[in-house]
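Fold it.
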Amino acid sequence: MSKLIVTDREGKVHEIEGRAGWSVMEIIRDADLPIEAACGGCCACATCHVYVDEAWQAKLSPVGDEEELMLDEAFEPQPNSRLSCQLKWSDELDGLQVTLAPEF
């Protein structure tokens, strides 16, 4: 069983079971954590914005053009910002650590 580790906006850490084929956004939303994901995962907003732990950045797929455009619109973007809807879960991501970005 693979785990996604999510730090919420209050600093509480949650270990969530990963699900192959799901996006990180879907896994977080299914765990009832406060992630808006207004567009439902279409890379058309930045409400699923997360900060990826530095140890994981190089292990993820690169940021695509659409994601980069949306991250430009994100609230308080950082060098480690990603849209969780664009991160597809696989067992290779076991232990991935993300922090929910501040809301608008």
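The chain has one domain: 3-100.
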